[in-house]
Amino acid sequence: MADEKKKPAPKKEAKPEAPVAEKPTAKPAEDRPRKAAPTAGAAAGEAPKTAEAPVAAVAAPTAAELLGEDASAKKIIKAKHAKNVAVGIANILATFNNTQVTITDMHGNLIGWSSAGRVGFKGSRKSTAYAAQQVAQDAARQAMAHGMKEVEIRVKGPGSGRESAIRALQAIGMEITSIKDVTPIPHNGCRPRKKRRV
To answer: What 3-state DSSP class applies to 36?
Structure first.
């Protein structure tokens, strides 16, 4: 019998704990109807405001971060007729006057291309390293829209945009498997023209 009395005693101690927890919530008597009202019919306006305020405070930075990531992602997703090519070749032609980036699949079929003029540069600014960076990013976005992830780079020409174009491709998220310099080099070449008679 003593054991039976002891068993209900802890139950009684547990019961006051629940009301003790409720007492602080019970002191502001207005809180209870407000909490009950939004769950039942969402009539009271203050409870949703308190619920939304922390959510908005937490969601705002994450939304800003997500928008920062999505800005580039939005440009990359969904090509109309996506070719789903994972591996390709990026051909960078860097001359003294211009920079062109052409991305193809492994067979040489065109997937995306860009040049300094297409990106919006004119005149002497087309030959700059910054223009080459923008060109590479534009071409890479086109290729990534078709599902490209890995790229083999082939660089041709002596222009200033060689390195910056490669770095831009790497920075946008493409995996670079190899870099080759395919600049044509004359080795004696063909027979020269006959000498000019004066």
So the answer is: helix
